[in-house]
Amino acid sequence: MEFYKETKALVKANIRDYGMYIALIVILLTFTIMTNGLFMSSRNISNLLDSAGYIAVLAVGMTLVIVIRHIDLSVGFLAGFLGAITAIFLTQMGISVWITIPVILLLGAIIGLFNGVLVAKIGIPSFVATLAGMLIFRGALLQVTEKTGTIIVRDEQFNAIGNGFIPSIMQINGLHLLTLLVGFVGVLFYIYNEISNRRNKLTYGFDVMSKGIFSIKLVLISAIIAYITWILAGYNGFSWTVIIIIIVVLIYHFLTTKTVLGRHIYAVGSNPEAAHLSGINVQKITYIVFGSMGMLAALSGILFTSRLQSATTTAGTLFELDAIAAAYVGGVSSAGGVGKVTGAIIGAIVMASLSSGMNLLGVGISYQYMIRGGVLAGAVIFDVMTRKQRA
Amino acid sequence: MSDYILEMNDISKEFPGVKALSNVNFKVRKGEIHCLVGENGAGKSTLMKVLSGVYPYGTYDGDIVFEDQVQQFKEISDSVKAGIGIIYQELALFPDLAVYENIFAGNEVKKGPFVDWNQTIVQATQILKKVKLKVTPETLIRELSVGKQQLVEIAKALSKDVNLLILDEPTAALNEDDSENLLKLLKELKSQGISCIMISHKLKEVIEIADKVTVLRDGKTICTLDASEGEVAENVIIKNMVGREIEDIYPKHPDKKIGDTVLKLTNWSAYDTQLGRNVVKNIDLHVKKGEIIGIAGLMGSGRTELALSIFGNPKNYKLQGNLEIQGEPKVLKHTSDAIKAGIAYVTEDRKGDGLFLLQDIKSNVSAAHLKGISKKGILNLNEEVKVGKVYKDSLYIKASSLEQIVGKLSGGNQQKVSLGKWLFTGPKILILDEPTRGIDVGAKFEIYTIMNQLIDEGMSIIMISSELGEVLGMSDRIYVMANGAIKGELARKEATQETIMELATQ
Hints:
The structure holds two protein chains of two kinds. Chain A is mostly helical. In chain A, α10 crosses α11. Chain A is globular. Chain A starts with a helix and ends with a helix. Chain A has a two-stranded antiparallel sheet. Chain A has a two-stranded antiparallel ribbon with strand order 2-3. Chain A contains 16 helices and four strands. Chain B is α/β, with parallel strands linked by helices. Chain B is built from 17 helices and 24 strands. In chain B, β13 and β14 form a beta hairpin. Chain B is globular and about 70 Å long. Classes of the chains: A mainly alpha, B alpha/beta. At the A-B interface, α11 and α12 of A face α10, α11, β20 and α13 of B.
């Protein structure tokens, strides 16, 4: 009885967060059943995650931009443009991958910072400032690819980012060993982290989850990590794209939940005036968030160019809107101050799953757009309803 | 036909937990200027909102008789149709539209389905003549001074053929000349048969212009004074405004230890570039360790502006004068500098700029001092819970848990969270802006008790308050402000509600 009560209280308190995961699971199950298991096949999941990568990193940055009540429309073509610059560095200029990537990331951060200055210092509404950026980078992309058309990249190391997998060391029963090891370490790390958190709370004398629920939570999440690892190990293992997404999410998750900077970002988003009066430098936070957005746009450009093994004249088209959609599906609120990095990733995976599943089912592209639109609206409606209950 | 254009009989209006008006009777004769006075929160604005239909018929008790007919205004447009025009303290003009567009906004002159702009300009010119405003109708509102904008508001009301004009603090933002002009205009309108209700804090004006004065206090009509009978005099009005005795809700604190000066302002002024005037003028003020300073004054007297100008100047006023903290001159450029210097400011508008309403109690408490729960920029979330718990207990915050969203708490508990947030910064000087506005008596008493504890710990408190009882009950010394300047400094013993009111209405 105790157990039932605690579970109920937990679900009630976290319905907003759980809702998204439940939606994802429903979508995954539906497609798996409708495609007779083809959807959950190793190969499909691997492809799905790789194709979600360049939107997922944008969605992470966009979530923070929306949290501080702004928007960035320039990131799509900025990603396209920086992707083209990457290709030019690697092919026409012959610069090494190891120099190119940091330089492009830095360039992205600087451009993002510039957006931040326009918005916070000069006071241009972010919608307009970044709309201008969108036009400028679209032009810039055309400019640099005008003479050559599509730039094909032949650098093996670089192309591995979007298409390659981590080395396997050896195969066991057709499973990818290093992937299994990484997954295993991941599970251990997760369990260690949770247990030390719980112990820490106990030393402070705080309430913690009862042992029963805590064990169930550990087993459940470990099982999910293990299952994903197992699926991916059945194909080529973790791709570099997946590794990059995981690293980005870990860094941003830590930054937003465990640091002073993260707290300041959410404070500025929930009430800029109160934040200012609490001694927080609102301008500085805006610079940082836009700067990070620019850097992630650069990363997105790198991932996309690498995946296509080329820079095209239309790269980045509508990326910004896909990223915004993913962020909203992931539970960010335009009223500011609410939204999680993990949500953005789930949102991106939900949207990618919809595309992938419907492609497998042979749903026409016209219906695909409508269904994705419906899911976006549904997610926001759910969000608004649960918020009303809370406030 | 009766002599009265307006009779409001037995009006009562309740808000959750507060009785804003109880059995108010208010009558205005045809062609008279009737002033409505009272302290902040006495119910003047509420009464006018009932009259104009902002609070629709059915949400209040009692009846309104206007021009011999019982009226049931369901929305503002109903009262406008009946011939009541109201001009709020905050002007409701469109700054980027022309004068004539503003005068007829929502009341457009039409020819068929289209707006007849030529006719609009012709009519606007006539009305402008009536209010003696010498500008072309094409002028943009943005280009006019506040005084002239006020006249445009009146013109707007006149364009709707009003018989009763209500003005809420019309001269609060005006300089002497503009005020004088406005009052002259009201007298002239009176001679044309337009009755007028004016809410004002400036008693000199009231005495100059009023035919009758009605005093409200605590949501009740106290008296109506008649100028023709010679009843309208400053001391009579003030006596009726404050009336009550200080209730015994202020905890006694007999042996205070008062130390050295911690904060000193000399010749301190703040110029607001947006308003284009000094909001704080040549202020000399000092606060000692362990002292509670009261800053009294009416709304718009510059008290909040003074607090902001000290607290790192978030509104970017142009500052002049000297600020010393514990004898050292300081320049505080950002709120974070002020916090570092040991100043904390609990805002008047806790929902608007004090709290993060969607966040929980513990993150609100830690928000202004994350350093206290972090190392090298990394938060210790357990430490945060601990800190939250300390303040929840010591400030008697009533909530189910520290994870409760602050937006869901009652006003008194929100105020305590706001206070907790600032106490966690470890201030030497605590500025409280209207610390007990909108909270119930029990929570008030708790906040007063906490204030006494804090000064025992060596803190100094600057309390800005519109509640005279609170100012008199809690402060060691009182500064009275009006028009951005300090009009007087009173020791606790020499201060009475009357002396404060006299200074505040200068």
